[in-house]
Amino acid sequence: MSDCFGTSDMLVEVSDLLAHIRAAAPAPVGVERVPLTQAVDRVLAESLVATLALPRYTASAMDGIAFAHKGQAGFRLIGEALAGHPFKDPVAAGEAVSITTGAPLPVGCDTVVMAEDIVISEDRVELAKPETVRKGQNIRHAGEEIAIGDRVFEPGTLLGPAQLGMAASLGLSHIDVHCRPKVAIFSSGDELRRVGGSDDKTPSLFDANAFSLAACLKRWGAEVIMTEILPDRLEESVAQLSRASRQADLIITSGGVSAGQADLIRAAIEQLGQVTSWRVAMRPGKPMAFGHIQQVPFFGLPGNPVAALVTLMQFVQPLFRQLSGWHQWMPVKWCALCEQPLKGRRGRLDLLRGRYHVDALGVARVSVIKEQGSHRLSSLYEANCLIELPVDIETCEAGTPVTIQPLGELI
């Protein structure tokens, strides 16, 4: 790993910073038991071990008739088996029971033929194609999907609709999940004010970053603490950051991490903890800090709105997923063919805003958005991906395969 951590004047490679962040991330933030109705998009905290088999019993996979296969073509129909209303008597050779999908297979039966392949006349049933019937067909055997004692899900599993459906199928009404990390979000600078606040007619800018960052973190499952704007006054900044470190599992600021005279974040953090990196070899997002405030992880993101969201996606997200307990999380990346020449800057990872589509042959293609200024928030919702240009590539010809990152969780 690079030795630039702890040195404020050197550019940190993206891969080095990501490895450093993952190594420095604390353990997940705790465990709580919640009902299944509140567990969607939560992260499983304990192994889920089956105490029931799935299917619970051997059942029919089709509507039709059930019987013991002995090579015969006709049967005496003696009753019916319905889902929720099983046929309780044994079925002898030469006898059959009409059966519905999901109904328990009656004792003595080992084969089901679907309704389309039988002919019923009063209490007799004939197979339309007896030569095609195989013993054991159209049956779901007890425990064939999940056996008692199986480890169904491991800790760190994200609980989506299919996982919650499986938990319900196994008889669970509640489940142990990791708590939602609490994230305190600050914007920095006397030039900012919040929408809805008083207007003293002083030239100012509305704070957009706190709202866009909070929206993204909420999509990831955070419990967001919206704080006051950090003023350009050291003592007040120190007090607010110190208070946040007692309330939050993660602290994020935007703005105030460049070399400007009014950028006091560095001085405030140095009074409360440590920062191990101030600049990263990436565009947008070069002025980005990472460290700890009284043992709580801290990210100082750039003030430009695009750079703030891009660095959130690249660097905050991996640590946040670890805090959430999602150990196996990896960013989504695809390959696409660029439709025009691309230009980057050697020595930095360039993340260009672009739009991808899939052509009639199923090939993903991507083009770059014209406006790339990191102050242009509109360029993020006009784009649907980031195009990666690695540090060792300055130009990229049309038709070259490139790596793209879909922006589904930002736009």
TrEMBL record:
GO terms for molecular function: metal ion binding; molybdopterin molybdotransferase activity. This is Molybdopterin molybdenumtransferase. GO terms for cellular component: cytosol. GO terms for biological process: Mo-molybdopterin cofactor biosynthetic process. Keywords: Magnesium, Metal-binding, Molybdenum, Molybdenum cofactor biosynthesis, Transferase. It catalyses: adenylyl-molybdopterin + molybdate = Mo-molybdopterin + AMP + H(+). InterPro entries: MoaB/Mog-like_dom_sf, MoaB/Mog_dom, MoCF_biosynth_CS, MoeA-like, MoeA_C_domain_IV, MoeA_C_domain_IV_sf, MoeA_linker/N, MoeA_linker/N_sf. It comes from Kushneria marisflavi. Pathway: Cofactor biosynthesis; molybdopterin biosynthesis. Catalyzes the insertion of molybdate into adenylated molybdopterin with the concomitant release of AMP. Signal peptide: none annotated.
